[in-house]
Amino acid sequence: MDKLVRALMAEDTVKLIAISGREICETARELHGLSRVCTAALGRTLLVTDMMGAQLKGEDHKLTAIVKGGGPAGNIVCTADNQGHVKGYIEVPDLELPLGPDGKLDVSMAVGWFGDLTVVRDLGMKEPYVGKCDIVSGEIAEDFAQYFTVSEQQPSMVYLGVRVDPHDGHVLAGGGLIVQPLPHCPDEVIDTLTEKAAMVKMLAGMLEEGMELEDAIRKIFDGIDINFTENLTPEFRCDCSRERLERVLISLGEEELKDMMEKEKGAELTCHFCNKTYSFTEAQLSDLLVEAGKA
Ligand SMILES: [Zn+2]
């Protein structure tokens, strides 16, 4: 089962958040018919968005990450809340690319590195909080590390790994980790963390071997004290509903609705995030037209 944990390390001078998210990535693959490289690209973004969402304070708060790298896979959009629920899509889900020079899935080539990464925090206020930075590599983890440093002045170690079966494309493991030294963190602790970088890259492999997330974290950061403070069960979950789409249709206004009734004799809407299709007959649109007239 997927898991998300938060912890304090090195005598409470470092924050850690980590995720084991094989099922999140596999659900995304099934819903969107993702190619192997897109499973890795969207999977990584879902994992990091879910971890960032878990740091939100309120239950109605939402965090959305938009990766616009300019590559052939198109944009990636993921949204998470603070209970571990995450949803997301990639514009060209079936993109196939040859393996990269290192024999691995070429996420960087699919995502591109010519655009920007935007993070929108909707904290229930009038205006959402928006942060932005340039994309540096299209590998996702590096781009989010850049985002934390540039946009939030919070230097962070970010690791994201999605292991995909080379034959049938199933997700074998998904692991992610964000390590953030707090302002009072001593330099020698930061040096020790930096030395662990090579071990951090083994997280997805450890999870694939069946290791528990906490055990993998303890192994990676061997020699540093870790105090796990919270854990929850993350999940790919879309919150779309017929009622929500009815409100979208009403908000289009009378002219647009009349147009749909006359030209299309109904409407068929597909949710970007989960691919679920909602059909509206001419009669149902006519009811919504009445609602739109009242608005
Ligand atoms: Zn949906």
Description:
The protein is an alpha+beta fold and 295 residues long. The chain folds into two domains: 3-236, Hsp33 domain (3-Layer(bab) Sandwich), CATH 3.55.30.10; 242-294, CBS domain Like, CATH 3.90.1280. Helices cover 37% and strands 28% of the residues. It has eleven helices and 13 strands. Helix 1 crosses helix 2, helix 9 packs across helix 11 and helix 10 packs antiparallel against helix 11. The longest helix is centred in the first third of the chain and has 18 residues, at 36-53. The chain is globular and about 70 Å long. The model has no long low-confidence stretch (mean pLDDT 95). Zinc ion is lined by residues 238, 240, 271, 273-274, 276. Zinc ion (ZN) is lined by residues 238, 240, 271, 273-274, 276.
List the helices and strands and how they pair.
Blueprint: E1 3-9, E2 14-20, H1 22-32, H2 36-53, E3 62-68, E4 76-80, E5 85-90, H3 107-111, E6 116-122, E7 129-134, H4 141-152, E8 157-164, E9 171-181, H5 187-195, H6 197-200, H7 203-208, H8 213-220, E10 226-232, E11 235-236, H9 242-252, H10 254-264, E12 266-270, E13 277-281, H11 282-294
Parallel strand pairs: 5-11
Antiparallel strand pairs: 1-2, 1-10, 2-9, 3-4, 3-6, 4-5, 6-7, 8-9, 12-13
Helix pairs in contact: 1-2, 9-11, 10-11
Zinc ion binds next to loops.
